[in-house]
Amino acid sequence: MQVTIQPGNIEGTLVAPASKSSMQRACAAALLHAGTTTIINPGKSNDDIAALEVIQQLGAVITLQHDGTLLITGNPSLSFAGKEDKTISCGESGLGIRMFSPIAAIADKQIRIEGTGSLVKRPMNFFDEIFPLLGVQIKSNDGKLPIVIEGPLKPVDISIDGSLSSQFLTGLLFAFAKTAKKSVCITVSNLKSTPYIDLTLGILKHFGYKVEHNKYEKFFIEPVSEIKDSILYTVEGDWSGASFLLVAGAIAGDITVKGLDAFSTQADKAILQALMSSSAHLSITEKEVSVKKPSGNSLLKPFQFDATHCPDLFPPLVALAAYGDGTSVIEGVGRLTHKESNRALTLQDSFGKLGVQIDLQDDLMLVHGGKGVKGGNIHSHHDHRIAMAGAVAALSASSSVIIEEADAINKSYPDFYDHINSVIKK
Q1: pTM of the full predicted structure?
Q2: Is residue 186 a contact partner of residue 166, using CB atoms and an 8 Å limit?
Q3: Per DSSP, what are the bridge partners of residue 378?
Q4: In the chain, what are the domains?
Q5: In this model, does residue 403 exceed pLDDT 80?
Q6: Which of 47, 261, 312, 383 does the annotation list as catalytic?
C-alpha cells in the first residue's frame, strides 16, 4: 500500500485510539479471570486482534456485545478438551509473545508459540534461561521463534535481567499472580520502561491480585483466594498513537485529542515534556490535550529528551525535532535495536531522504533541525511508527511525501491516515 501525504495546516478534534498496551494486558487478565470480564473501548489494531485470538486459542470465550463492548469468559486453569497439543500465534506483537508465553506455560500440556513478520527475528533467549527454573520445558529455534513449551509453571523466587524489555517481566507477573500458592519474589536488575510495569501492576490490582515492588528491584507476589466474579475494565486512550497527533499539532496547526488520561501510567505520556521543551502551545485537562504550533513565524525550539523508558517515542520525537531551530538530542538509542525495524537506522535513513540529518553517537541520537523538511519517497520498513512519523513530518514539508508499505500502521492505529486527513484544512 502506498500513501501520499500532501503538506497542509491542520485544525480539529480527534479521539485517541484505544491503547494496545492496555488492551492486550486486559485480554491476558480476562483469560486468567475465573468469572466474566467486560471490556469497554476495546482496541481494533492488529496487535489487539492477535491478543484476542490468543486468549481464544487458550480457551477464553469472547462475545461482541451490541454496544461494542466485549464480554470475555476466562479459562484460568488453561484446561482444554482432548489431549491434542496447542499452537498459538501472537502475530507480530512483541508484548504478545513476551506476555502470553509465561501465561501459556501455566497449562500442563505442550504448546507451540509462533509469530509473524519481524517477531521471528527477535531474541527469545530469556525463556530458554528462565523457564527451566520454573519447571517448564522449552525448545526454541536457537533462541528465536517458534518455541515449544510444556508446563505447568511453578512460581519460585528468581532473579531476572530486565534490560532487554520489561515485557518479559509483565508476563511473569501475570503467571505468578495467578498461580502463586505462597509468597514469591522476582528480583529484577537493570529494568527498563518502568511505566509499562506500572500499567501491568495497575491492571493486576484492578483484577484483584496482590503484587507490590520495592524500587522496581524486587516484586512480591502474594497468593489470592477470592476474586469477584464480574469485572468491568475500560481500555485507556493510547498516548503512543496520540503522540503523533500531538506532534502534528505542534508542526502544522492546532489539534485537540480527546480520550487521553492525564493521570495515566503509560510511558508515552512523556511526549508532553518534549512538546513543552519545544515551545509548542499546550493546553492539558483531565481527558484531553490541545497543541498549537508557535505563533507567527516563530520556530519550534530544539530539545533534549531521555527516551530510555519510552523508546516508542523516538519516531514522533524525530518528526518534532526535524522542525526545531537547531539540534535536538534524544537519549536511549540502545532500546531501538529489537523493534519492528532497527529504528535508529530506519529513522536515520527515512528522514535523511526528507533532507533531515540524523547522527548516532553511542546512546544518543542527534537530529539536526532548522533546514526544513523536503518531500520525497520513504519506506515504512514494515514499521508502523516509521510510517506515522513520515506522515506527520510531511504536513509542513516543502512538497508531498510518499510512504511505501504504508499499511504498517494497522499494527497499532488502523485509522491513522483517515484521522490525519480529517483535520487537514481544505
Answers
A1: 0.91
A2: no
A3: 403
A4: 2-13+237-423 (3.65.10.10), 20-153+168-176 (3.65.10.10)
A5: yes
A6: 312
